[in-house]
Q: What sequence folds into this?
């Protein structure tokens, strides 16, 4: 019984550690996906002159997981007549929990919403480029950090399980 | 919204106080007399859905004002005008009505004042939050909404090397409601075709808001479908819809039925469009809206040598005026057009005043008038 309980404790806390590690690893992946989406959005605006609802519908088709839902909701909101900046912020508010991103990431992402669709193509392009630079800088920092943190959490889970078992025995 | 909403007693005093709005008070009374009849109900629902459809293009506050309108039948509305710092204005076929914040007719000083934010929100909705996508349209000073409604825009012009680059600080928006009128062309077609049913080069002229585009749309559809009892067989019609008004295209989907043999080139300059259509789509008739630019005129003169028939419109109120317009003069000098249709607003938009045979200078429509003259 004691052995079984100990195994459960180790596996449980180890599993928890792995889940946290996985979430940490997903953060740079999500930032990378966002960068790709930004590049696509830039092309849609600069070359395609595609109106935002249609551009978001295209992005929805070409992104995965949480970003697909994000752009899907944006498309819906714009079709309902919401202004792009407002819709962008509201979508972040309603969906940020389904991402593994941190508040500092959202702060940069939120910048896109400012003035989105409100100026000419060149101006939009410049604005997107600026955010792209910030996001790629953030992604580089986060990548190194995430690797270390993820490793730490995956060990820490099991270690703390084992420590708890030793302590309890 | 319910029937009650439509028939709810409203302060008729506001309406009656203003003599110029008497017709609306009359409408309101008539509606009241209708009681609970199905007709009133249907009419109400139809108006409301139409108002709702149009109002959704405006900013939140203006939208609420438009949704509260009760006494102005949607069918009579021709323009909705927003001017910064000025009262919200609706133009019907025979009068101007200023609206207060409850959607009631009001005097100029009590009207709902349009704010900058209303204009910005409206523009955002009309461009689907994508002003960059409407750059080309803004440069020309108009947008086209689904349904072919045209939105005129004024503001501060940004120049680049003497050319209009774009508009900024938009200060005025004018939504012109487009309507499809079906069947008007039939009465006109006999005077625009010869005995074999062959169509003649035709120009429709009128001052703005007299229904040129609407009539042209109906002519295109009739020619494309064919009118067997007039001996007119269906013909391939190429439409150069430079401003997106004729087909009312919105992202590639035409809203108006232009007939089964019609090819629409959406948003294309006339000169280039003519070359594309003639080369690729072998039309019998080419239709285009609003000749005015010298390039358009050059393109039309060129197209005549390719054997296609041309139907177009231009701004002018009489034949003399059209002849004097520098851009159109070469067309008249060359004797390009064989028929000239003059429209006016005398009995409402789309009143056909006269059709001239430009070869003989005689009036060929209305028949009765020429018969009387003979």
A:
């Amino acid at each position: 019984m004691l052995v079984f309980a100990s195994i459960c404790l180790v596996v449980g806390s180890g599993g928890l550690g792995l889940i946290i590690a996985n979430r940490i690893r997903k953060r740079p992946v999500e930032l990378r996906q966002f960068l790709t989406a930004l590049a696509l959005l830039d092309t849609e605006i600069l070359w395609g002159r595609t109106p935002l609802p249609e551009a978001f519908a295209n992005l929805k088709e070409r992104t995965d997981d949480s970003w697909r839902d994000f752009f899907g909701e944006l498309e819906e909101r714009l079709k309902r007549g919401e202004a792009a900046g407002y819709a962008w912020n509201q979508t972040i508010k309603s969906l940020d929990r389904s991402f593994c991103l941190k508040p500092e990431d959202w702060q940069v992402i939120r910048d896109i919403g400012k003035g989105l669709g409100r100026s000419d193509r060149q101006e939009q392009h410049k604005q997107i480029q600026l955010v792209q630079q910030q996001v790629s800088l953030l992604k580089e920092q986060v990548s190194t950090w995430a690797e270390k943190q993820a490793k730490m959490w995956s060990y820490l889970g099991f270690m703390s399980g084992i420590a708890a078992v030793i302590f309890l025995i | 919204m319910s029937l009650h909403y439509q028939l709810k007693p409203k302060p008729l005093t506001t309406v009656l106080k203003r003599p110029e709005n008497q017709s609306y008070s009359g409408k309101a009374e008539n509606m009241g007399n209708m009681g609970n009849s199905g007709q009133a109900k249907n009419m109400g629902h139809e108006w409301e859905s139409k108002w709702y459809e149009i109002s959704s293009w405006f900013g939140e506050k203006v939208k609420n004002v438009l949704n509260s309108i009760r006494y102005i039948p949607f069918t009579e509305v021709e323009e909705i005008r927003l001017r910064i710092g000025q009262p919200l204005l609706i133009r019907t076929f025979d009068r101007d009505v200023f609206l207060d914040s409850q959607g009631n007719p009001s005097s100029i000083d009590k009207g709902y004042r349009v704010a900058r934010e209303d204009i910005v929100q409206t523009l955002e909705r009309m461009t689907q939050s994508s002003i960059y996508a409407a750059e080309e349209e803004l440069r020309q000073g108009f947008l086209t909404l689904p349904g072919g409604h045209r939105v005129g825009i004024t503001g501060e012009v940004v120049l680049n090397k003497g050319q209009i680059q774009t508009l900024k600080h938009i200060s005025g928006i004018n939504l012109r409601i487009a309507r499809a009128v079906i069947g008007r062309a039939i009465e006109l077609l006999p005077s625009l075709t010869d005995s074999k049913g062959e169509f003649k080069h035709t120009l429709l002229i009128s001052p703005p808001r007299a229904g040129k585009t609407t009539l042209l749309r109906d002519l295109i559809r009739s020619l494309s479908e064919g009118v067997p009892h007039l001996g007119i067989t269906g013909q391939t019609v190429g439409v150069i819809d430079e401003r997106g008004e004729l087909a009312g295209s919105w992202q590639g989907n035409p809203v108006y039925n232009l007939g089964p043999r019609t090819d629409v080139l959406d948003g294309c300059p006339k000169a280039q469009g003519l070359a594309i259509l003639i080369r690729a789509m072998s039309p019998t008739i080419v239709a285009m809206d609003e000749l005015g630019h010298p390039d358009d005129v050059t393109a039309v003169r060129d197209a005549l040598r390719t054997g296609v028939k041309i139907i177009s419109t231009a701004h002018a109120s009489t034949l003399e005026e059209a002849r004097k317009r520098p851009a159109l003069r070469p067309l008249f000098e060359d004797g390009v057009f064989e028929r000239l249709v003059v429209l006016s607003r005398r009995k409402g938009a789309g009143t056909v005043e006269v059709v001239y045979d430009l070869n003989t200078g005689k009036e060929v429509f209305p028949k009765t008038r020429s018969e009387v003259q003979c």
User: Anything to note?
Assistant: Chain A touches chain B through 22 residues (CB under 8 Å). Chain A has a mean pLDDT of 90. Chain A has one domain: 2-168.
